[in-house]
Amino acid sequence: MRVVLVPLSVEVARAAADPDAFERLTGARLGTFASNIRDIAAQDEAHNARSGRPPEWGGFIAVDDEARDVVGVGGYVTAPDETGAVEIAYHTFPPFEGRGVATAIAGALIERAAASGARLVYAHTLPETNASTRILTRHGFAQTGTAHDDDEGEVWRWERRLV
């Protein structure tokens, strides 16, 4: 599976109210995820405002490159820090789970980060073996310790050096 990352934007969020307008703008079929995309775009915009994160290091809609369906979302928590480290996050919409979508989203985010000069990519997972830990392992990440997440408590930290 291969995904294309479409940047979240105010225009994309507005177009999500009209599936035809969304498809004209993005080239992708929205399916039943209009309200999800509007909510995620609003959250992304609020996070950009709070964190000062530039839009190019924001959120993306993941589109199945072949079927042209919206299959999930992903993005960067912040722009790379002064050491070149950047955190990724990804989510597959339920009808597409178990099809390699999250693996493809993570891969696309890693490729984009590497092409943009990031030196290290990291992610956090629940502190147990699960789908995300397997995805990160497939992409060459190693579990390097723990971190605190405001919502989840203690989480595992995973890292992959790019250079």
Helix content range: 25-40%
Q: What is the terminal separation in angstroms?
A: 26 Å
Name of the CATH architecture: 3-Layer(aba) Sandwich
Order of helical and strand elements: EHHHEEEHEHEE
Protein model, in words:
The protein is α+β, with helices and mostly antiparallel strands and 163 residues long. It has one domain (3-122): Aminopeptidase (3-Layer(aba) Sandwich). It has five helices and seven strands, in the order βαααβββαβαββ. The protein has helices spanning 10-15, 19-26, 34-51, 101-115, 131-138, and strands spanning 3-7, 59-64, 70-76, 85-92, 120-125, 142-149, 153-161. It has a seven-stranded mixed β-sheet, with helices on both faces. The longest helix is centred in the N-terminal third of the chain and has 18 residues, at 34-51. The chain is globular and about 45 Å long. The model has no long low-confidence stretch (mean pLDDT 95).
